[in-house]
Design brief:
The complex is a heterodimer of chains A (225) and B (486). Chain A has 225 residues and is an alpha+beta fold. Chain A is 32% helix and 10% strand. In chain A, the strands form 2 sheets. Chain A has a 3-stranded antiparallel beta sheet. Chain A has a two-stranded antiparallel ribbon with strand order 1-4. The C terminus of chain A is likely disordered. In chain B, helix 3 packs across helix 11 and helix 3 packs parallel to helix 13. Chain B has 17 helices and 4 strands. By secondary structure, chain B is mainly alpha-helical. The chains are: A alpha+beta (225), B mainly alpha (486). Bound molecules: iron/sulfur cluster (2 copies).
Chain lengths: 225, 486
């Protein structure tokens, strides 16, 4: 086809010296061996997060789970239900989230307040974290900012399927600063994660006073009771 | 439905900060990293020295101490002690540690942390450079199912790992790792078997290793295993020719095939004490040819075509558990044995440059005042230490080479073996033979060797610094990426 021929970049032929491979080998050994020595001898800087690390060691991975990478604040993690000043959930059982949910994993049962003829509340609000595909649609759908996924915990492994269904109480508990309700038999991992979360939170405060305000804005006042 | 992704203004503080620091890194380039501290370097060198010294001391204690206690000095029973001291302590231990080193060092070379999860105690700080992974690995392999694929030739299938393992291990038998000593009326040597065959034994045993790989692939009733077996057979037999021919030059120079005599010869000097009589100074070219051929024999990258885990899984594809472990272990033992061989043939064995064993011994006995017996022991210790240090350097070099170079293509391997290594080693053989015939004092051979070494050094020095060269090239194409990835 005229005019449509693509020219490949010209191939450089290797000269004799390069084809003997000796010099190339020495170059490679110098590079890799140097990196080996540098990384083997020098300790890793574990005080800072990866990109801020200093020191001669060029190791850029972390020793998970002793160290953890920071989780970005728009990370979609475990759900939580926010609550009002008086402790009632903000949710008005409008079913928007369960309608939006593509995985059909939110089950809500609405109830009515005795003193309030207009507003409803969820008698039952369950999320099956095994079905959830962590799409975040429920958060976007909610008109009352009642459901969020900003806990920065992932749903934790469970020993049976029942434990992976999170009740309303557990989801509300997720909104408290201490950490989530610990599913039975799995306390170790949960505590580790919530401790890690607190540690990160504190580091963030220390390091970036400016960004902390933004974080607060995002998390809402009910996060810190 | 609202947009799923939050707008940029909503991206939390942390994210923003991460981006900022990324930019900062890009701006500063590699200057962000401080230089290696000399103190740490010195500490590492001292640590390595202590470990080598401990190993040398252990071998000395086992071989000499037991020989002295049992009163078997000077007899063939010393060979048995050497099986414990040299074969088990030195070779086995090194090979075992290499299993961890392979993974930990490759991690370091690739800027990773590497295995650190297996720990002796629940103390989070003590990962011991991943060494507890040895135990974890061993346990894992022992408890894996010992699987024999249907249709496999059962007897051969079970025999193949042994056939791969034993020759690798037997290689070390003729290698002298230390000088012969005579102290407190006990005479010992640091060599398992003192046989007339010497290098020929090594050729013979190394060619048996082909059977292990080939039979493993053939007996497994697996197409990929068969492919690996064919590759192994073709590659190892091709390179055996070059391997043997490169060493003929060395044999001509030293005029013996007994390794202990070769090592003892290299203890001396040439040209009136100017140059140590090491093999590398006579045959630098042969060393490079030998390295290439030997790496191909060991079947490790860049010659790991029989394994080639990314294309065929290799001749041991059907093996599981400890049978696979034997193949893996054989590979590491081959590395150690090969390094020991290189040291004995080209780098003076246990000798230290310019100082002969006798001179060292008399200096220790008279000037330092140790007395003859202790001086002999101390000199033996120095020799063992020198051997271990040199050997570990080549072990390290093989590791770095394995993690630096891409695998060759099959036709490249065959071309290299038959069209490059074979003719070049023949040329080397002819030149060496002519030089030795013309000048039996070896001066001409040494001059030719030094000329080759000079050429090689010029070639090597003409390489610019690898980092700068690559950085400049990459910077030219993608300035942004380079600054981020440093
Ligand atoms: S994140 Fe997606 S899948 Fe999970 S509950 Fe919300 S809408 Fe359903
Ligand atoms: S969480 Fe929000 S969307 Fe879901 S029912 Fe409650 S108020 Fe409605």
């Amino acid at each position: 086809m005229p005019g449509r021929t693509r020219h490949l970049p010209e191939r450089k032929t290797m000269d004799l010296l390069e084809r003997t491979y000796v010099r190339e080998m020495v170059r490679g050994i110098r590079l890799i061996g140097g990196r080996w020595a540098r990384n083997l001898i020098s300790p890793r800087d574990t005080e800072h997060e990866i990109l801020d690390r200093k020191g001669p060691s060029e190791v850029t991975t972390i020793d998970y789970p002793d160290e953890r990478a920071p989780i970005s604040s728009d990370y979609r993690g475990m759900h939580r239900l926010t609550f009002r000043e008086d402790g009632r959930p903000r949710c008005v059982a409008c079913f928007m989230c369960s309608t939006a949910c593509p995985a059909n994993c939110i089950s809500i049962e609405a109830g009515e307040y005795e003193d309030d003829p207009i507003e409803k509340f969820p008698v039952l609000f369950e999320i099956d974290e095994l079905k959830c595909i962590v799409c975040g649609f429920c958060v976007e759908a909610c008109p009352k900012d009642a459901i969020r996924m900003d806990t920065r915990w992932s749903s934790r492994p469970t020993l049976d399927r029942g434990t992976a269904i999170w009740s309303k109480e557990q989801l509300i508990e997720n909104s408290r600063p201490i950490g989530p309700t610990i599913p039975e038999g799995l306390d170790g991992s949960s505590r580790l994660e919530s401790r890690e979360h607190e540690r990160l939170e504190m580091k963030r405060k220390e390091r970036a006073p400016g960004s902390e305000e933004k974080l607060e804005e995002r998390l809402g006042p009910d996060r810190r009771r | 439905m609202a947009a799923v992704n939050p707008p940029a203004s909503e991206i939390g503080g942390l994210q923003e900060e991460t981006l900022q620091s990324r930019r900062a890194v890009g701006g500063e380039g590699s200057g962000r990293r401080s230089r290696l501290s000399p103190l740490r370097l010195a500490r590492a060198v001292v640590l390595v020295g202590v470990v080598f010294g401990a190993a040398a001391g252990l071998i000395l204690t086992i071989v000499f101490g037991l020989a002295h206690l049992l009163g078997i000095g000077g007899t063939e029973w010393v060979g048995l002690l050497n099986i414990v001291g040299v074969a088990f302590i030195l070779v086995m231990m090194t090979a075992t540690l290499l299993i961890v080193a392979e993974r930990k060092w490759s991690a370091r070379m690739q800027n990773r942390v590497g295995p650190s999860r297996a720990r002796l105690f629940r103390n989070e700080k003590w990962a011991f450079y991943g060494i507890p992974h040895l135990a974890a690995d061993g346990l894992k392999m022992i408890f894996k199912e010992d699987f024999v694929p249907p249709g496999a030739a059962r007897l051969v299938f079970s025999l193949a790992p042994v056939l791969a393992f034993v020759p690798a291990f037997a290689l070390i038998a003729v290698v002298p790792v230390g000088p012969d000593i005579m102290a407190f009326g006990t005479e010992v040597r640091f060599q398992v078997a003192r046989i007339d065959m010497g290098i020929l034994f090594i050729f013979a045993v190394a060619s048996v290793a082909v059977f292990g790989a080939t039979l493993a692939g053939w007996s497994a009733n697996n197409n990929f295993g068969m492919l690996g077996a064919l590759r192994a057979a073709a590659q190892m037999i091709s390179y055996e020719v070059a391997l043997a021919l490169t060493l003929v030059g060395v044999i001509i120079v030293f005029q013996t095939i007994r390794l202990e005599e070769i090592a003892a010869f290299q203890d001396g000097t040439m040209w009136g004490g100017l140059i140590p009589a090491w093999g590398i100074f006579f045959q630098p070219f042969a060393l490079i040819l030998f390295l290439a051929a030997a790496f191909a024999e060991v079947k490790r990258a860049p010659f790991d075509l029989p394994e080639a885990e990314s294309e065929i899984i290799g001749y041991f594809v059907e093996y599981s558990g400890m049978k696979f472990g034997l193949f893996m272990f054989a590979e590491f033992i081959e590395i150690v044995a090969l390094s020991a061989l290189i040291v004995v043939l080209f780098f003076g064995g246990w000798s230290i440059p310019w100082v002969s064993h006798e001179a060292l011994q008399s200096w220790l006995a008279i000037d330092v005042g140790l007395g003859t017996d202790w001086a002999a022991l101390a000199a033996a210790f120095v020799g063992l230490f020198a051997f271990i240090a040199k050997m570990m350097f080549f072990v390290w070099l093989q590791m770095v080479i394995r993690w630096s170079f891409p695998r060759f293509r099959y036709d490249q391997i065959m071309n290299l073996g038959w069209k490059a290594l074979l003719p070049l080693s023949l040329v080397n053989l002819v030149v060496t033979a002519a030089a030795v015939v013309l000048d039996p004092t070896l001066s001409l051979a040494l001059a030719i060797g030094l000329g080759q070494a000079f050429l090689l050094i010029v070639v090597i020095i003409s390489a610019d610094s690898p980092k700068r060269g690559m950085m400049a090239a990459a910077q030219h194409d993608h300035p942004q990426e380079v600054s981020c990835s440093t």
